[in-house]
Amino acid sequence: MVQPAAWDTDPEPLPVDSAPVPEYGTGSLADLLPTLAAGLGVPGATAGITELTPADRNCVFLIDGLGWEQLRAHPADAPFMTSLLGSSRGGTGRPITAGYPATTATSLASVGTGLPPGAHGLPGYTVRNPDTGELMNQLRWQPWTTPGAWQPYPTVFDLAHRAGVHAAQVSSPTFANTPLTKVALSGGTFHGRLSGEDRMDLAAEQLAGADRALVYTYYAEVDGAGHRFGVDSDTWRGQLAHVDRLVQRLAEQLPPRSALYVTADHGMIDVPFDEDHRIDFDEDWELKAGVALLGGEGRARHVYAVPGAHNDVLTCWREVLGEQFWVASRDEAIEAGWFGPRIDDRVYDRIGDVIAAARDDVLLIASEREPKESSMVGNHGSMTPAEQLVPLLEVRS
Ligand SMILES: [Zn+2]
């Protein structure tokens, strides 16, 4: 075998097909609500997660940012949820995959519509709006885009409501009328409550008030603590302990014939603050060459090239990022199934010409364009188990 020359020791780019693709169809967030709806007899709903036993009253509690690996690593801070894990005390808890990218707007849309990102069309934190050529932030819905045109499918709550199932969402009042709630979580009635305790109590009431129910509730602050202080920080562990008590509070109030499912929209990974781990797009002329727009987030980038430059950008990003990121062209990522088994026509051009998904504990920050996001300790977005695996815990009454 010929030894490579000394100047030829750059690591080979990661093969696109080495990325662990989400388990769309059988074990992803998008499969949860359709499975529950199918169990309730809602027409058109398919049970993708076949091991779940149908229940008349179903509640999904989504904990923002609580990945499977982080939960498993902190049993003392989360004794109740730990008791629901598969490996201990006979619980049935298991991991499912969030979907790509592992980010809140994308995952909430997957949960609510029961569709993978390639179909619901929120395939990133920020993506290009093909009609305007501008980046659109999917979480804050800026700049404004007509929600029903951006995501035209009914939610699973809509379908359940039409089928006579009581559908309700119990979350922060802040989210009552947001476009993201409209496209991802509408159908039935929205109930705003400020405190986690009130949300748990109201979710239990909503379940008890109907023979057949599909209820959703949500808690945000585990994610916030992770972004600001890191996974495993005192603040993060305090939030974990708090949400563990919330889960128990809801579990103890479940009316008969209920199933409570605790899950999350994504996990999280801490990224060290040095130049080896935080590559700055705004300071890197090689990465910037030929790029018209930088979308996504630090661990899940959509790169939109100037016309005619996408092949050059792809080659350059592969060389610069080496083995630290999976770098794919749009068609390679689609073919590998990163965004799901199908891509709607209206979604195709929202996806970057080049996609870069972090494999290591690294970030591709943009210190000038995104000063706030670039300074976060905990991050998420990519396909590593720490980000991609989320719990699916079950409590039955
Ligand atoms: Zn987050």
Task: Describe, in plain words, how this protein is organized in 3D.
The chain folds into two domains: 29-268 and 385-396, Alkaline Phosphatase, subunit A; 271-379, Gyrase A, domain 2, CATH 3.30.1360.180. The protein contains 16 helices and 17 strands. It has helices spanning 32-39, 68-72, 79-82, 104-113, 117-120, 147-150, 156-162, 179-185, 196-208, 221-229, 234-251, 285-288, 310-321, 330-336, 345-348, 385-388, and strands spanning 57-63, 94-97, 126-128, 135-137, 166-171, 189-192, 213-219, 258-264, 269-270, 278-280, 291-297, 300-305, 325-329, 354-358, 363-365, 378-379, 389-396. The protein has a seven-stranded mixed beta sheet with strand order 2-17-8-1-7-5-6, with helices on both faces. A four-stranded antiparallel beta sheet has the order 11-12-14-13. A two-stranded antiparallel ribbon has the order 3-4. Strand 5 (166-171), helix 8 (179-185) and strand 6 (189-192) form a beta-alpha-beta unit. Helix 9 (196-208) packs parallel to helix 11. The longest helix has 18 residues, at 234-251. The radius of gyration is 21 Å and the shape is globular. The termini are far apart. The protein binds zinc ion. The site of zinc ion has 5 residues, from helix 10.
